[in-house]
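As a next step, we paired sequence with structure tokens, yielding the entry below.
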Amino acid sequence: MNKEKEIKQAYSSIMALKGMDDFKSMIKRLQVFLCNKQKYNLGDISMPCYLMTVNRGGGITTMINALAKYLYVADAFEFCGIEKAFEFKLGYIPPDAYFSELMRLDNTFVEAAGYNRHFKGVVGINIDEWLGHTSEAHFTKFLETLAASTGLLTVFYIYNRKKEELKALESAISLRLRLEYVPLRFPRGEELVDYIDIGFMQTKGLYLSKEAKTLLCGTINEIAKGKHFNGFKTISTLADDILYHIFSQIGFKSNDVSAEILQGFSKESEYVRRLVSQKGSKKAIGFTSPQSKPVHAEGDRQ
């Protein structure tokens, strides 16, 4: 595949993601910037770092990997390492304790880079534990360390959206790093139904009726209330269970999937009841689409 096709494919895969409208807008702006950077030889203008607010299970891993892949194939960023992108959770350390998180972060960079290399790429850093502590010396040291590092594109992300804490966080980061704020919207039930229909049903020659889609939308909205709802992973499991149910029916003939066939997966079903027996969303992490995997080096292109 030639370079132009690779770039187009990476861009199209991002535009095909369900929800994430603000992320897509960010990529569109980035595409324009990269074109103008090449056209006007703007080598001294770099990309900002990003601050994302996202629901748990709302797409951050997918976004980070998709961003890294797009920048990689577009030759927009110098990558070096075994991995092109990775994620890190910055744990909170009180002011009177040794800030061991910096050493742990540095070790993670070394692992991602590989032996005798300096990691260059995209790093997603969850900083939820630092909300309310952004004026402390440890957090300042963390930001200064990132500001002094070369070859990094940092994506800060949080699950908390308290306005006052978010404003303080934006201010703290902006004092040391150029910053763009990108809120990520959680995909709606209708969009996730389309994900099941197009990504699972139609690839097997099955087609959901209008009533079946309505039933599944209610099911997904109910499942999303569960404490352990895990984004695309949970939705993919639901799709696999539906496929197994359909193709294990004796005498199955029709390619049209009706709401009657899916009654065992309705929001009132025992199947859904098991999944939402514990409500709340404190544990679920990652909304990684099966098509979005960590971006690794190809050949010796470091």
